Amino acid sequence: MAETTDALKFAKDAIQKNEEILKSSDDTFSSEQLAQLKQLIVEVPTNDAVWTPALSLVSAGLLIITGFVVLYIANRSIGKAKDPTIESILKLLVVPLIVICGTMLIVVGFGEKQVAPAFGLMGTIVGFLLAKDSNSKIETEQSGKSGPGALNSRPSPSHDNH
User: Residues 78, 89: contact at Cβ < 8 Å?
Assistant: First the structure.
């Protein structure tokens, strides 16, 4: 915070000196005045970058710790399950892991062009894992019906004349 106020004071002083030089001169500048102007032209440091390296490192560390906690909780819930399936284990471990990895890519500072392919791949993996179980449920329901093409088969009308 002190650096910002010092930079603002310096910039105000430079602007005042620049105005004094411009007021004292005519339309043309002497080489001495141009040299003074060149010395006054400085870049004022701004704090546009919100993510400093230290903040990025701390955020990444906290994200890693959070990731381990989430995976630990997922592992404990798998251990308490009566009959966990491979699909449920994969969903419970891989989906949070992919979310944590995606967030980590953003926190450590990768740009949009670098992150987009990774997000596409991670989204594909999550979509496959989440859709895999619903497809197997549909196949199980279909296998309970009789014959091939059971999805389109209709029950035949009964012709009992008792």
Answer: yes
Rounded distance between C-alpha atoms, residue 128 and residue 135, angstroms: 10
Q: pLDDT digit string (tens) for 77-106?
A: 988 888 888 888 888 899 999 999 999 998
Whole-model pTM: value is 0.52
Question: What is the token pair recorded at 86?
Answer: 């491979």
Spatial CA neighbour of 60 closest among 109, 98, 97: 109
In this structure, the dihedral spanned by the alpha carbons of residues 133, 138, 139 and 141, taken in order and rounded to 10 degrees, is: 130
Q: Which is nearest to 115 in space by CA: 124, 107, 106?
A: 106
| Whole-number Cα distances in Å, 62 to 3, 7, 55, 102 | 27, 32, 10, 14
Which residues neighbour 96 within 8 Å (Cβ) at sequence distance 6 or greater?
67, 70, 71, 74
